[in-house]
Amino acid sequence: MICKKIKNPFIVLCILFFLNFLSCPRTEASRAEFALGTVCSITLFEQGQSDIYREIFNRLREIENRMSVNIPSSDISRVNAAAGIEPVKVHEDVFRVLERSVHFARLSDGAFDPSVGPVVSLWGIGKDNQRVPAQPEIDEVLPLVNWRDIELDARSGSVFLGKVGMALDLGSIAKGYAADEAAAIIKRAGIKRAIVDLGGNIVVCGEKKDKSPWKVGLQNPGGKRGEYAGIIMANEKTVVTSGVYERYFEQDGFRYHHIFSPSRGYPADTGILSATIITANSMDADALSTAVFVLGCEKGLSLIKSIPETEAVLIMEDKSIIATSAADFILTDKTFYYKK
Ligand code: AMP
Ligand code: MG
Hints:
Blueprint: H1 2-5, H2 9-23, E1 30-35, E2 38-44, H3 50-67, H4 75-81, E3 88-89, H5 92-107, H6 117-123, H7 135-141, E4 150-153, E5 158-161, H8 174-188, E6 194-198, E7 201-205, E8 214-219, E9 228-234, E10 237-243, E11 248-251, E12 254-257, E13 260-261, E14 266-267, E15 272-279, H9 282-295, H10 297-305, E16 311-316, E17 320-323, E18 329-331, E19 337-339
Parallel strand pairs: 17-19
Antiparallel strand pairs: 1-2, 2-6, 3-5, 4-5, 6-7, 7-10, 8-9, 9-18, 10-15, 11-12, 13-14, 15-16, 16-17
The structure holds adenosine monophosphate (AMP) and magnesium ion (MG).
């Protein structure tokens, strides 16, 4: 009957094949999209289905929409706009990240400080208005940077910044949280092997088929993107780096990068070019990589040694690479020298 009405049965077959193709879950080797201010790339080995990629990227955008200072409707922007005026109720995601941020601010004695926002805005690094501010401008904003003035009320889930002009900036921890959330989706979906890479915040999920550890390249801070100083071996771990090469501008022979000393209001200058943390939780690693970068080698390493199951690899200006004892690091660029 149908064939009588539709003159060409071949077309019917083609349509049926196409409909079947649309309804089947498709697999992709990997997917990269721009989110959280960076290129986010997810690789799902073997069972890389489109709907899982979609779920992950939707979750990344949801987190960005709640935490970005560049989105006026985000919870963080609303908290900042109400600084010194009133508490603001925030989403659980945001509250959780802020609680952890305050924890690491305390632990690092303020080297990591989520209230660094006014300093970040003043310098505008990576933006059209980036510049070296005059000292009086820095002196004016420094009293606004103090994690002790962040009031978190767990009962109401609200956040209050104690002084007018204060501003939160989760640029140094939100990607870590997002990477953990992406890894959780991957685990729930039963995917055995995957790599989450949110602009250098890396989580390796599961084991490789041959059971050998994953190899994560450690960026040479002075080299081109993808030029490595060495390799970090890791399984079921996150590898997160804070480095001078991520965002910066140069003026009069100086490089001004995006990781600030909250007490001085200047880019941290501790002799570290990059600080990498290897541990289980990416949010923790993200906060700690920034904290160690600001604290410097000695204090930074003693902080890391006080935290169980957490390792660090530091690349220093003098070309030395210093790692904690259980870090599984192999030097590949022999222009550096490696001390354990
Ligand atoms: P990361 O690359 O993870 O070290 O994060 C750097 C970003 O975190 C910057 O672009 C700022 O938005 C913010 N930031 C800069 N300095 C600090 C600091 N000392 N504590 C917390 N966040 C910071
Ligand atoms: Mg960080």
